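Ligand-bound model needed. phosphoribosyl ATP.
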Amino acid sequence: MSEILRIAIQKKGRLSEKSLAIISQCGIKFGSDERVLKERATNFPLEFLYMRDDDIPAYIRDGVADIGIVGRNEMDEQGLPLVVLRDLGFSKCRLSIAVPHDFPYSGLKSLEGARIATSYPNILKGILEENTVSASFVEVSGSVELTPAVGIADAICDLVSTGATLAMNGLREVETIYTSTAVMIGRPEMGSTAKEAILERLLLRIDAVMKATSYKYIMFNLPVEHVQQVSALIGGLKSPTVTPLLSEGWVSVQSVVGEDRFWDVFEQLKELGAQGILVTPIEKMTE
Ligand code: PRT
Ligand code: ZN
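Prediction:
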């Protein structure tokens, strides 16, 4: 039987949909029956194992799966000997300290002797030790936000994205100790050159997909006298493509622009007399 790469994906939760979307954008086809726990891609040597995110790191370490997608927080909390293959950027969140409104907080030192409820004792312990603060931990696996109100903790350390949960529970976010995004992880050694080759093909596709989503394709008409200025402004993979228009004194310009610079570039193009600005997403892209 030819070699296959096994990827562990969260079965149901915050990471599931986006993890599958990125694989699907790589042109890899698979069914999407929610009840299956294991399935094979039809056009790529990849097998999916669907499981709880907590179980993914150990399954990879033990060789049940080869790679997987988890929150960086999960990987760092477990501290297994695994490596981050790619930062996928989605499911961004932060691990923060939050306290009830009447807690006098003025820095990590205020936590000296406090009882802190968390599901991330290892990450928290590391940060407190670095700051020579000693506190006691109340380890809970869910509803961390409830613990101060029921009197079992003085402060909490939990994941936050919008902050709505903290606000709803009368807690004030006072310090971010760690930030996380979804990462693709694996063992430092795959243990098979065939698997390594499949992984390399997959990573090449993932890079192209991620690159594409961070750029936009842009087209517009421009008075020819502004071509040099615009070229300096937007660059492009090499330089922008410039085509003459039938109307005298005008050219059509095509290029790619980084998402982070987009609005800035857009406003400057308008000032330089660009017209008919058309922007489209890019599906795949390589340098
Ligand atoms: O069942 P399984 O064990 O697989 O799932 P799970 O319940 O353990 O994990 P899940 O799906 O909730 O989260 C998976 C990963 O998503 C986490 O490990 C993080 O990397 C990432 N992530 C991103 C988050 C959040 N944002 C997040 N907001 N994980 C949890 N939360 C929780 C947080 O714990 C708190 O209860 O959402 C609440 C706060 O949200 P806001 O928006 O109100 O601030
Ligand atoms: Zn979990």
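The first helix runs from residue 16 to 25.
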